[in-house]
């Protein structure tokens, strides 16, 4: 093998990579948060909703989980703009990622909500809590605690999947890599660097989820036992 | 601009054959590499366990898209012709092996410990234990999650389009370039993916339910 590795372009282009990684973080943190909101609402609809709501939420989950994210992104970006709704690449990226994250979160949170025992709901009833209070104080947090590891891995998967938004030229990390490699012809080196950055981001996100879990789940923090 | 026609739809459906072929390559390749990974993960040797763990962390911590680019351009560095099918096949093999390895490790570990002890008492060696006692039982546990993972494989083959392999997603882009009706075309493409994936999803769920019914 006579190939010589050459990472010299880094001296000049590293700010591009930092900017790309920063946009990746912004896009994905926003999508994870919004997707979690959408997913939780849909999960509540799937468990406690009427037949129509249940079906709607179920259809949403099946359609999104059985089609590729790439095509979802194309439909949001190219499809909607051809129908007259022009969104920027970044907004389209967040929208598509949110819809995607929402569908997976629905299934995860549904499992959590279904694991809450009936007696808990009855007890809340006896205490005179309203439906909304019951859901907020009795159902959601313990449900989330039970499925928190799955939520965390789904968040990391979404962060990695956000690389696909480079295909609609959202200037995140992967798009930056594509740009730099077409300027420098150092394709392999560029993607090795980006792979390392993504690995670091995965670790960072896992750490972030762990920290949020510590703050959120007081009972676990105090007792140190899983629910 | 060309009018969108029935022929375009035929073209898309035909391109779906490549999606299926790529999925089969990914699954077979992933299974061949993934089984040793799973066995290494439960091995007694710390070194083997560490290597398999590192491999899984590496692949699961990088986007598949980047793995695709690395194989595509990496092949070029090694002096081979840049063939999108080879690069895609390799990448999906690496990718599927990491996930299947981790799924199957869980299945192997789910076989009760007493089965190991009993086969030990019968004087079976390690190979015999795996071949006749552990793996056949792990296989039964492994089928539902493996079918579920196949959905991920089919969907992710759409990424091969970015290195120029003409499968369903790329075919959709090609049709879109000549007709410019993105909403209709990509909805059709999504529908074809749905037709491929939904039966697998339903099968995975049904198998899962049946497996649980058998246990209780």
Task: Please tell me about this protein's structure.
The complex is a heterodimer of chains A (227) and B (216). With 227 residues, chain A is mostly helical. Chain A contains 9 helices and no strands. The model of chain A has no long low-confidence stretch (mean pLDDT 92). Chain B is mostly helical. Helix content of chain B is 82%, strand content 0%. Chain B has helices spanning 6-41, 46-60, 64-77, 84-110, 113-121, 126-156, 168-179, 182-215. In chain B, helix 1 (6-41) runs antiparallel to helix 2 (46-60) and helix 1 packs antiparallel against helix 7. Chains A and B meet through helix 2, helix 3, helix 6, helix 7 and helix 8 of A and helix 2, helix 3, helix 6, helix 7 and helix 8 of B. Chain A: Keywords: Cell membrane, Membrane, Transmembrane, Transmembrane helix, Transport. Chain A: It comes from Reyranella soli. Chain A: Residues 21-209 form the ABC transmembrane type-1 domain.
SSE diagram, text form:
The complex is a heterodimer of chains A (227) and B (216).
Chain A lengths: L8 H40 L2 H15 L3 H14 L6 H26 L3 H9 L4 H31 L11 H12 L2 H30 L1 H6 L4
Chain B lengths: L5 H36 L4 H15 L3 H14 L6 H27 L2 H9 L4 H31 L11 H12 L2 H34 L1
How much of the sequence lies in strands of chain A comes to: under 5%
- Note the total helix count of chain A: 9
Tally the structural domains of chain B: 1
Low-confidence stretches of chain A: none
- CATH fold name of chain B, please? MetI-like fold
User: What do we call the CATH homologous superfamily of chain B?
Assistant: MetI-like
Number of domains of chain A: 1
Mean pLDDT of chain A: 92
The CATH class of chain B: Mainly Alpha
Largest beta-sheet details of chain B: none
H/E element string of chain A?
HHHHHHHHH
* Estimated radius of gyration of chain A: 21 Å
Mean pLDDT of chain B: 92
In terms of structural class, how would the helical and strand content of chain B be classed? mainly alpha
